[in-house]
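Support reply, case 0932

Customer input (verbatim):
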Amino acid sequence: MDNIYDNCVLNKKINYMNYCRCGEPVHPVRQKYGYKTCVSCSGVERVASAPVINHKTGNTIQVVTQEVAKALYKAGRRKGYGTCLR
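Our regenerated output:
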């Protein structure tokens, strides 16, 4: 019971004044940030990440769309991608 939802239920501070169009209650944290729908009904596309390799240890990720992530994954499966092989 480490997440915020369980803590709200245990403390009985949960207040579901807003319900989503599907009938499910909107989580209090989503309400706090102004969202009116549940995660399942959200119209926003999920984001993905692409690795950015700087050198041996300085790697980071870049947030990209699902479409770009799929293209990068497809390109990364090619033989010799990212190497000097021709």
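We compared this against your earlier run and they match. Two observations from our side: The first strand starts at residue 48 and ends at 52. The two ends are 53 Å apart (CA to CA). Please reopen the case if you see a mismatch on your end.
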